[in-house]
Amino acid sequence: MNRILGDRRIVALLLGPALLVYSAVMLLPVVWSFGYTLFEGNAISGFEYVGLANLRELFSDPDVRDALWFTVRFAVVLTVVQVAVGYGLALLYVFLLRRASSLVRTLVFFPVVLPTVAVALLFQQLFESAPRMGPVNQLLDLVGLSPVDWFASGGTSFVVIVLMEAWRSMGFYAVLLYAGLVDIPDELLESGRIDGAHGLRLVRHIVLPLSTPVLLSSVIFSINGTLKVFDSVLALTQGGPGNTTTPLTLYMYQTSFTYGQYGFGSAIALLLSALCLIVTLAIFRSARRDRTEA
After folding, report:
1. pLDDT tens digits, residue range 13-53?
2. Could you give the CA distance from residue 277 to residue 228 in angstroms, rounded to a whole number?
3. Which stretches does DSSP call E strand in 55-132?
4. CB-CB contact of 241 with 154 (8 Å)
5. pLDDT tens-digit profile of 78-120?
6. Nearest Cα to Cα of residue 41 among 206, 256, 290, 238
7. Are the C-beta atoms of residues 74 and 229 closer than 8 Å to each other?
8. 55 in helix, strand or coil?
9. Bridge partners of residue 46, in order along the sequence
């Protein structure tokens, strides 16, 4: 096996077909899309070379700034919620429920496999204010608070979107982090207990440092997924009211396929790709710096 893997020609022969398919399906369309940033128009009206005009428009379009602000705010808030809740559930599975956690893990993971449209319709009904009050507003009315029109403003719509995505995805991050926690040797945990570390002290000084790699992976998964949010926002609010809940992905879709501006839509896609790359590199650099200082 070592002799085979050490032969570059055999490695190239084995990996070549897969790399060719991946390049044709993934890399070539990305490069093609970036090329569109230099043009204006669409497949029907034709294309006109405009140079860097689309990239300059990115910095002057207020809708791009609004979409970028919503995307970053949504990504930061939801990443914190997803990873924190997922880590809390993982600790619950390992230290409290233990062998009895299988059923709970299955129930919590179930929303992950539900269709996005079904989840969006569920939350529309939960937070409905007209023509009838949904369960959330009924509960507010029951405790003496005024019902809220949750989808009438960007602030309350943002809250509903975050709650929906957190509920739908927390099971995935709980299982991902649980897989990292169960790999912690029992001998280290027992040594910590003998030294007097129990409860939160055990988690803070032993479990948390040892689970840093899987936490880092969860943060990267979450931040990249939330930066590219599309279907859940489209199904729940369609970017409204106005454009207050429009992320970069939805604005890119509207620009390209509703208004037929392929070039400017590709420029928005380039901005989103650069944002994902910068955030991922920043997370890796920060983690590497922490390990070096430690």
Report:
1. 778 888 888 888 888 888 888 888 999 988 788 888 998 89
2. 12
3. none
4. yes
5. 999 999 999 999 989 888 887 777 888 888 999 999 999 999 9
6. 256
7. yes
8. helix
9. 42
Q: What is the b/e burial string over 28-53, where b = at least 16 CB atoms within 10 angstroms of the residue's CB?
A: eeeeebeebbbbbbbeeeeeeebeeb
Q: How far apart are CA 59 and CA 32, in angstroms?
A: 22
Q: pTM of whole model > 0.85?
A: yes
Token pair belonging to 87: 């880590």
Identify the residue whose tokens are 């032993």.
Answer: 206
The full set of domains in the chain, from first to last, is 52-293 (1.10.3720.10)
- Main-chain dihedrals φ then ψ at residue 208, nearest 5 degrees: -60, -50
**Spatial separation of the C-alpha atoms in residues 209 and 197, rounded to whole Å:** 14
Token digits for 152? 């009438």
Please name the residue that has the structure tokens 């970036």.
34
- 3-state class of 230 per DSSP? coil
Burial 222-241 (b: 16+ CB within 10 A, else e): bbbbbbbbeebbbbbbebee
Secondary element (H or E) of residue 41: strand 39-42
As given in the structure block, the two tokens for residue 178 are 């649980």
CA distances, 283 to each of 25, 88, 290 (Å)? 28, 22, 11
Copy the structure tokens of residue 134: 């949904």
